[in-house]
Write a structure and sequence with these properties.
homodimer; 286 residues; alpha/beta; Rossmann fold; Cytidine Deaminase, domain 2; six-stranded mixed sheet; four-stranded parallel sheet; 10 helices; 12 strands; 38% helix; globular
Chain lengths: 286, 286
């Protein structure tokens, strides 16, 4: 567990999506002040307006540290999506440039390597990076169904196979999700991300290259065993459910406690409408 | 090794691509007669005309057995691509229908399960299914470069990581190929096949979602440790080289002895023109 100091405000570095605000809401309800540090180009403008906030560009490490320090923060959370960081969305300030050799060094190897390196950089500036799941555990997927459907016996077998596969590829710093249908591994996620993997399976279905009939197959999502959850909690939200339905899957299984659900009520509604299950499953998270 | 009887003609069930003819040529040069059993809709009409041949539809298991038996064959090789078998390309004859429960049973689980089941079906009819690599070992990728380029130190690291990853996912009956760039696993093949995986990486490159610059990254191809090579030898040919170049990779590495090269001279020429390497690498094949 973290040794976060609860009497200082929590700084939340916000990427895209609805999860950063869900974290801010949960932490506020616990009685702790929050200061948002939304990333320009990713964070939602209207949503962040509900809390004290200071916009920063990706790459303004010095500005970020100064703003957080001035706001009295010691603990920082980084949460939200950060798809396709492009050079023109980045502005490198002096502190970033000073640490650039270490940052670029971290780029060799997978995501975990990069993100742990960034964690150490914040620590070198006197901050403590904590996990969103530590300060707002209620945002995590709980065990059991999210909508009204539940997986059947064949689905449970597919889920077990997917979880085992994700565990096996964990040491390679790849694969937070897989799609398994009738015991057959259909797709394994790497750089493309879950949404594009689901779109690929929808395409394989249209092509007739999937043997399993529609309504068979499960998207299984779980954090890599080696993953540093302070940075990269897998998230499931309404788009996941819509794409899973388009791919003709029976449902979505998420390792309980290992991922965040964005907008759980909407997820449940969409899953019920599409006739698929969304379920938190037990496992052996690290 | 196979206990193939060399004084009987070899029956070659031909799928698509140029590899079936390369096998026929090699076996003929060894002094053994061949009889081709080309699959309607996949095998190349002009190419098969060079040898005694009898066309069959996919699904005509009874007809196939009768033709092979009449031609005096005991040993059969199945080789060539069989992409997207559609119901309208299949014609089920009586023997196929009789064995349909077993065939459908084999569909549960991965490719290996299905193919081993089909192997046992041929054995039940008195045939011996042998591997193309057993009767024509010269079609296999040899150790060393195919064109004039060779992998550098970083490429060799990526190749080692790719081979280790493919070995790790082998028990899940998935993944004969992976793409690794700068130590980072970019893509892992499942149902989509190597060509589509390469196209996906080209797209990730266009999107700016790949961190590695063009000219970094290797396609690594190796048979799954559990794979029955009598059915599913991975193949590399001119399209592989063209797609690898489009994906901005440094080259293609194939486990020596573990895959077939279709049209090696053209592969070498295309690789040199694109400035990428194609290399057979040592490993620990099963």
């Amino acid at each position: 567990m973290s040794d976060a100091v609860a009497d200082t405000p929590l700084g939340i570095i916000c990427g895209g999506g609805s999860v950063p605000l869900a974290v801010a809401d949960a932490v506020s309800q616990h009685g702790r002040k929050v200061v948002l540090l939304p990333l320009i180009g990713w964070a939602d403008e209207k949503a962040v307006a509900q809390y004290p906030h200071h916009w920063v560009h990706l790459g303004q490490f010095g500005r970020l540290c100064r703003l957080a320090r001035n706001a009295g923060c010691r603990d920082l959370v980084f949460i939200g999506t950060l798809i396709r960081p492009s050079p023109w969305k980045c502005r490198l300030d002096w502190l970033t440039i000073r640490f650039l050799p270490q940052i670029l060094g971290s780029f060799r190897g997978g995501d975990d390597h990069l993100l742990s390196g960034i964690g150490r950089l914040f620590e070198s500036q006197g901050f403590l990076l904590v996990g969103a799941h530590e300060v707002a555990p209620e945002i995590l997927v709980a065990q059991g169904p999210v909508g009204s459907r539940t997986p059947g016996a064949r689905d449970l077998e597919d889920i077990a196979r997917g979880l085992a596969l994700i565990a096996a590829v964990g040491p390679f710093d790849v694969g937070q999700a897989a799609i398994v249908a009738n015991g057959h591994v259909i797709a394994l996620e790497a750089t493309e991300g879950t949404d594009q993997m689901l779109a690929r399976v929808a395409e394989l279905r249209r092509n007739g290259r999937l043997r399993a009939p529609p309504g068979v197959g499960v998207l299984v999502k779980a954090p890599k065993p080696t993953q540093d959850r302070r940075f990269d909690l897998p998230a499931v939200g309404p788009p996941t459910v819509e794409l899973a339905a388009k791919a003709g899957l029976a449902g979505v299984a998420i390792l309980a406690g290992g991922a965040v659900i964005a907008e759980p009520q909407r997820v449940a509604k969409l899953a019920d409408e599409a006739g698929i299950f969304v379920v938190g499953v037990p496992g052996t998270p690290s």
